[in-house]
Give the backbone structure.
Amino acid sequence: MRHYCGLMAVYDHEDAAKLTYFGLYAQQHRGQESAGIVTVDANGLHEHRKMGLVHDIFSESDFAKLTGTIAVGHVRYSTTGISYTPNVPPFIAQYHGHTIVIAHNGNLVNTQELRLELEKKGAIFTSDNDTEIFLHLLARALADHSLSDAIRAMCAQVKGAYSLVLLVDKTLIALRDPYGIRPLALGRLHGKPVFASETCAFDLLEAEYERTLEPGEMYIVDGEKESHEFLTDTLPQPRQCIFELIYFARPDSYVFNEQVYVCRKNMGWQLAHESPADVDFVLPFPDSGVYPAVGFAQCAELPYEHAMIRNHYVGRSFIQPSQTMRNFSARVKINPVKPMIHGKKICIVDDSIVRGTTMLTRVQKLRELGAKEVHIRISCPPIRHPCHYGIDFADREELIAANHTLDEITRILNVDSLRYLSVEGLLRSVMHSEYYCTACFTGDYPIPCNNCIRWLEASRYECSKNQRFFRSLCTRKQYLHLYRRTGPRSVLLLRLYWTAHPNYGAHRTLQTVYRRRYGCGP
């Protein structure tokens, strides 16, 4: 797992850059660390890429420079690798007279071997982002193939999840991997094509949602000509990421041709059928817990109360870049309506429990306010397995359900009962249930990642060998010395060590300080 992102592309519109900006703004929830837009006109490419939120990093003066009728945009959230401007997509390259722009949502599972192979052939990388792998592979394939065949040759070498928006000269290509793990939608604005990870971007632009690109589909726009092809003649059964519908996507979006709000409400209905609760009212934790809570309350015929009010100026805790920030967000993002809590039996309905940090803080607050009973119902199954395809819970050590039984989690969270939705109930909540990936619940991976496992095991071995040295790490000066001594290759090793370290939070704080001060680091 590397990053989770949102894509946007506009073709043949005089305000392409601004429309892309608004499309990224609508998809800010998909990545809060950085954003970028690249446009093309008769004078070539123009770019603006920067760390920060979309509305903070673009100004009118920036748009004056982003001229052209074609634009590609990207919002990013990094989970490993360096978080600094050279890692901010879209990526740009020039090769044999071609200008190439690429933006990627997903994660490759064979990044390390491809990178080593390309470096042996003389490739020079400017980032540690797996999106740059696509750039090198495509540039080499263009030397001997037509554009569509070059893209097929590129995709034949990569393994993993990817939705891509490519701009080669003035030809725009949008595509999804053969399993369709990550979403990508096609819309129309005044008859011209626009692409986005989620359809909420189309709503803001008043564009018409046409359809979701099919798994393995390559949609090509070249001037007035539009065509679509498939990467291979024989495609596997789709394995779309069901966590998009559980948590990531905005409820007003269509993802995989599913209406997200309806799916989440159905999950709440299924949960109420499987695990009813004898309580005074149902309490959602906004925002993503609201929609399954509506379904749960309606099915169980229980009162539904908003006894927790969200501060909308605080980002989503699940995708904050450090554990310290996650803890902070959990404390400040939601405030209780105190008279509603005291002496009441409450059923919390939420979409997921990943690390348990946020839920523990919430339950503690309810107990402090005098709740008589606290019951939890979760509208997805327990997350027990790492995701290699682009979601930020790759380390098994971070998953509370992977390391504790249901009874143990119930005691840890200090609740009267805890129940999860079953995998069967989850799949009954969506259409075409056979087309979804549930690997984070079941461990049944559509794309094996043996190299990921071997690399992980090797890193843990190295981590144990150097444990004494790492335990002495406690100051920023020592941290700087460590990074200079070990170099960028130690990034994964350091992450593994810090995750298991008893003083984990302090070391993550040092990571954040170093990144902000020096612009790089593990």
About this structure: The chain has 21 helices and 23 strands. The mean pLDDT is 84.
